[in-house]
Amino acid sequence: MPTNSTSAIRFAAQGVLGGYDGDSLALKVIIGLMTGMTMYNALELVVLVLMTFRRYRGLYFWSLLISSLGLIPYALGFCLKFFTVLKADARWVSVVLLSVGWYPMVTGQSIVLWSRLHLIVSGERGVKILKYTKWMIIVDAIILHIPTSVVTFGSNGTRDTATFVEAYNVIEKTQMTGFFIQEVILSSIYIVETIRILRVSLQNQTRRLMKQLVFINIVIILMDTALLSLEYASLYLLETITKGVCYSIKLKLEFAILSRLVKFVGGADRSTGFLNSESSRSKRKDEVEDITEFVDTTRTMTDITHASQQPKESSSGVGMDETDIECARYQHVEKAVLKKWGNGEDDNNDDSEIRERRSC
């Protein structure tokens, strides 16, 4: 005779076809609680984004806003599906809602990370990283979203349902693994590049921010690992309702740390709190910001506005390599940040510095 706990686990593995028809009160409470947490976090994020940004434009803004909005139909669709609120042909409403919300929730979260990746990578290597990761996100979205949507709708249909459910169990694990690898790659880039910054930085403000960035990306990887474990344990119901909560928490963490990173890297406008890089992005198709935002050009020995075959040598006969430029970049940033944070400059001096930096 199965106990209540074993019965709850057995039903937690179901849910691909139809809703939850078990009698576990605990599992029903968990479904409602997770749904409420996901929608609350989503609404809070939307309000924070709309109140924080003064200009509603840019990839970072739109990816953050759309991925946050995607959490709402995703959570609502699964809630309607699991509690069998909509029956007969009306059940397709819940399937459409969860599918429409799933696309921006998953891929949108990766775009949020990618949109701020240029703040910590630089040079030719940084351009390659941005290019390859961009195409990784695009290709994964095509080859993982579309097949999963096909088997999702087929599993909730009335023809060859068993075949679609069997295919769903395979494709769902495949797409979860694919998106897991994608997000691990993006988070790992942040961790590796942040460690490089820590090696050359001696300022406490810089090291504290970089350590927080590493910690948050490690937390993101751990949450993705937990979701993947639930998927391979075939606990479909628990995995789907937990996914919304995890992605909402990840978005809140990314919004917090990436916003601080933007302020730190240079030229933050007090009216928005974010780096005004729209003009530079419109001039450069690869969306890499102007190097004067990061590097003190007075410390370089080459004409950084034009490509050259050989770097000019200093009086000692040794040119600046990539490591020297990285050091100059972060020393310049740290100097500007500490000057504003440590000396408590007023708004007029800060605005003058902003105008001076933008005129470069």
Q: State the order of secondary-structure elements, H for helix, E for strand.
A: HHHHHHHHHHH
Distance between the termini: 76 Å
Q: Would you tell me the overall average pLDDT?
A: 75
Rg of Cα set: 24 Å
Question: How much helicity do the residues have?
Answer: over 70%
Outline, from the CA principal axes? elongated
The major sheet is characterized as: none
Describe the secondary-structure layout.
Blueprint: H1 4-12, H2 25-52, H3 59-82, H4 91-115, H5 123-155, H6 161-200, H7 204-232, H8 236-265, H9 278-283, H10 322-343, H11 347-358
Helix pairs in contact: 2-3, 2-8, 3-4, 3-8, 4-5, 4-6, 4-8, 5-6, 6-7, 7-8
What characteristics describe this protein?
mainly alpha, 360 residues, elongated
